[in-house]
Amino acid sequence: METHPYETFAELLKDRKNRNPNHIALMEMRDGAMRTISYSDLYRAVQSRANNPNLDKPSYLEVGAEKSIDALIDLFSQAAAGAKLLFHTSGTTANARTVILTQKAILRSAWNGEQLMHADEEDRLLSMLPLDHIYGFVCTLIWPLAQGAEVALGRGMHRLMDDPQTFSPTILPVVPSLLKFLLQSGSLNPELKQVLVGAGPASRDILEAVQKKGIDVRFGYGLTETASGLAMSPKGEDPFSMELCPDTRLRVSEDGEIFVRTPCMMEGYLDDPIHTVEKLKDGELDTGDVGYLDQKSRLHITGRKDDVLVFPNGQKVFLSEWEEKLTYLLGTEVMLGQREGLLCLLAVAGGENKEKILAAVDAFNQGQPLGRKIQQVFFQQTPLPRTVTGKLQRWKINLDQLQAERTKS
Fold first, then answer.
1. Structural domains in the chain plus CATH codes
2. Could you give the residue ranges of the DSSP H alpha helices within 33-175?
3. Which of 19, 63, 168, 310 is deepest in the core (most CB within 10 A)?
4. Given this model, what pLDDT does residue 252 score?
């Protein structure tokens, strides 16, 4: 097996310039015209800008939201002096933190992904995810560039339905909500061969629907703190049964919590040594995720440790599992929570749908013991708050406030 070849982005670009100089590295659609840049020209542009004595070369570099060839030339140029990169955790709690990652860790993560899911010069990957999140940065930019593939830069939210047909990718990394949208809107292009799903729990029904189109569907698991990749499902197998990335060591505690060691580990949280020590002890990261290893040592993720409600009678409700089931049964977005010891449901609905949802909740309750029945149902017409990668931001929902508003009305 080839050893991990790069320490910095500059090394990656130089090597790719030598291997396939005239091959397209990046492409974008601007003002109705397609613009491309080869690996050779990309390397020269980055080197030219990096040698500018007036260029700011910070020790820490925060990846911006702009997605364009010029923005990436700026990014790689600023990183040429060995800057460490900053990424924010997903924001599923009110305590999102800034993670410090070296270029070496990010490149190792991309190399790990290459061992489990290959791309080559014949492939074109469409980057539809935000680059200022680690999954988008590694899996839609660094990973394909490290393998000499073409990277098409998506045009943002307003062109989601158009971009797959415009760029004709063979590989598409997505978050679950984006895959569902592309599938239901009929936007997946015929050239598409592989889909990588990550950054949150996915519906098995959606993944199987994509597989039925003859597309290889992989599911990946990782964290901002580990530069994304820790595990990925093998080709043609159960997407939720994931093989560990090379040199990733994983321990599952008695209560199912997952702890990991990886060469892709963060240096820590920026200006936050206390939480760094809490999460990262002697090189082992407390992921906060819950799961298990099967007989093949494949990893299965069942939820978040803080996504389990424990009631006074000892009954437990695994939120992500229940919410997936209730979303399917009720046909709308839902969130479960606890208020005054009662299991509560918040559903996105209005008008006549409320009565149908209440009837469906009653039917669901018939199969549950008393301590796990849904006791209160709240409604709102606006979508539930989520991160840009589709994760539910539970901390933004206040059930006591919803109860107070319902009482007033």
1. 9-304 (3.40.50.12780), 311-408 (3.30.300.30)
2. 39-50, 69-79, 103-116, 134-137, 143-146, 163-167
3. 63
4. 94
